[in-house]
Each structure stands twice: as C-alpha cells, then as structure tokens.
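Dear Dr. H.,

I hope your travels went smoothly. While you were away I took the liberty of generating a structure for the chain from your last submission, since the lab meeting agenda had it listed for discussion. I wanted you to have the full record in hand beforehand rather than looking at slides cold. The sequence, exactly as received, is reproduced here:
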Amino acid sequence: MIKLFCAASAAILALAAPAWSAPLDVAAAKAQVAAVIDRDYGQLDALYKDLHAHPELGFQEKRTAARLAAEMRGLGFEVTEGVGGTGLVAILKNGDGPRVLVRTELDALPMEEKTGLPYASRVTATWNGKETYVAHSCGHDVHMAAWVGAARALVATKADWRGTLVFVAQPSEETVNGAKAMLDDGFIKRFGKADYGFALHVGPGLAGQVYYKPGAVSSTSDSLDVVFAGRGGHGSMPAATIDPVMMGARFVVDVQSVISREKDPAAFGVVTIGSFQAGSAGNIIPDSAHLRGTIRTQDAAVRDKILAGVDRTARAVADMAGAPAPAVTIVPGGKAVINDAALTERTAGVFQAAFGADAVVQPQAGSASEDYSEFILAGTPSVYFGIGGYDAKTIADAQKAGAALPVNHSPFFAPAAEPSIRTGVMAMTLAVMNVTAR
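The corresponding predicted structure, in token form, is as follows:
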C-alpha cells in the first residue's frame, strides 16, 4: 500500500513539475543577446534616464507604468494595466513550453537624491500626509531598463526558445506589499501560475558581476511601532512627570540586549529604531513618545524570540517608570526570498559559462527584505539574483580615499548605468532562455 502510494505520488509530481528544456548553447545565445543590447542600448539608456528623473512612490506609479506598458506593447506583448493598483502584466506566447515570470519593480523612495547627476530627480510627492522628495535610490530604474532590455532580447531570439513570458511590473516593493496586492487582484487566476520565475537587484558590487545563491537570499521584515504614554509637565520639574522620552531612550538601548543576549550569536537578527518622535520644546516633558523601527530575521524561531523580547522589553521599561503599558504594534512585512535549489544550480551553470569569474556565489543571505517572496510562496520556483552597480574606478577611488561606497537607499547611490543595465539584460535573458531553449 505504501509503495503504491509513493509510486503514484512520484508520478503526479513528475507530471506537475515542468521538464527542463534542451541544453542552452550559452556562447551562441550570449553573442545573439550582446548584438541586441548593442543595437538597442541607446533606447534603454534614454528609458533609464527618463525613469530616474521622474520617480514615483508606491501605488502612485501611473506615469512609470504607462511608460513600460507602451514599451511592451511596442514589442508585441499583450499588456494588462492596473493589476494590484498600478501594476502591469505583459504576456508573450511563443509556442508550447514553460511559463516564465520575470519581475521588475516600479516604485521609488521618499527621499532627496544628492548624486549630482545631470538627470537627478527633483520630483516631490505627498507621502504620509507630507510633501517629500522622491528618488530612485534603490536601483529600480536600472531594474526596469534591464527588464525592458530582456524583453527586447527575447523577442529578437524567438526562434531559439519556446513558451510563455509573463513580464510583471510590480508596484510598491518598498512598502513590501505590492506583490501581495497583485496576487490579491487575482494574478494567478487571470494570468496563470508560472513554472519558473526570475528577478534581479542591483547593489554596490562591481559592475559586470552577477551574484547568486540557493536558499534564503533576503530577510523577513516586521515593522515595529511603540507608543510610550507618560505624564507631561515642566522640564524643571521631572518628579511631577512620567517622562516618555526617558522610556523611549531606555527602550532603544535595552532592546539590543535581545539581540546580544537572547538570540543565538550565529543567527541573523536586527532591531533598528529609525524614528523617535516626542515633544515640541526643550523645556516641556511631553506626555507621549512614538517610536518606529524595523525587525529583520531569516529564521522563524529567531523571529519569534525577537518579537517576544521586543514586547517584553517595552513593557518592562514602562513598568519601571510607573507608566501605563505601552502600545506595541508589530506589522508583518516582506518574507524571506527562498531561491529554488535546482533552478539556482541550473541558472548558476549558465552564469558561470557566460560571465566566468564574474559569476559569484553569494556567501550569505542579505539583511534587506523584498516582497518577491510572495510570488514564490504562491507556487513559482524562482531565482532572485544580484548584479553589481559600480565600475572599477569608482570602487578603487573609494578604497584609496578610505571612503565607504554609497549603498542602496543612500541619497548618493548612483550605479554606473551602462554596465549595470547591460549585465542585467544579459543575465536575465540567458536565465530565461536556459529554461525555454528549443
């Protein structure tokens, strides 16, 4: 009975799992793709600079989405706009074969750009009820240009692959809820479940390099919101008050003991308080303090321990001050991106053949979070990989000066556009062709 069940299960799984395509001639494919990139790079550069100069915040990306929709329609894709708010899905069918999802992000960050680039953003928008500058300081403009470039290359090489491309431009990745918004809008029912998925991210590494890793490549994120309630009064009479600033300050320091004393030192875990708002004047003790932060983990047990420790520490701080219990709110965010081991191994082979020593194994998961994980959790085996963004001279100059390179989300983050986009197009196109080759 058990043997029959196992045999039947294996047969079902074999039918459910898509078969690998024919082996890809990497050298020939690379030459074809390189020719397309050379032909089209001027248009990709213009697209990149336009997107960089006109960034939009999450779920406000109407201009950005329209720009990409026009590009994809011009290539012959069937485009659906307004998915999950401002997202779009572009589909191209090219015979029987695997269904392959390729994702980019649309949104930018609520911050001022300070790169000094001639096409730097000076755009402003309303965010959380306030006017703010907006900038592509995470690299999503590079991603979008590479996404369009990969689509162009795949259209140009249609004779060499077969299947269905599902190019997804996702809104609001920075809030880690844009992917879920698309899925909640019936993404799978409307567009089908993909057999494979790919996404990339530019970072402060050497331009021309590609980074990959099986298993976890990012972290789970949780948003932390704590309000300490005190008793306000004159700054010269602290004994007549319950000082919420003191409680907040103590919490910021004490919560780190959860990381240093309760968590396994070998396990990743971060608690960062990025916002501390209290009071209006130096001689007034306010009646409340509002703290906001982020919690990053890569293991469910570590996450549970940290969340419990954060809550316990906040309550202990308030109790020690004789204050009411604080309001502690933890909102789950993006879940860790887990690369499929078999698909990563297959993709790594192509990256190694195409990029040689510039195909680099990522030694450990990154600390940042990303909601591409929602597509993976919805059933799409995927590879999420990185590309370097700085040219060799920029890196060498920084090392010589003893200066740190600006990282993603820095107002000075400015990837070298051409090598980053070219590498992104090449890596993404080859990854897709590798699972769809005729």
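Two observations you may find useful: The CA atoms of residues 13 and 357 lie 36 Å apart. The first strand starts at residue 78 and ends at 83.

With kind regards,
E. W.
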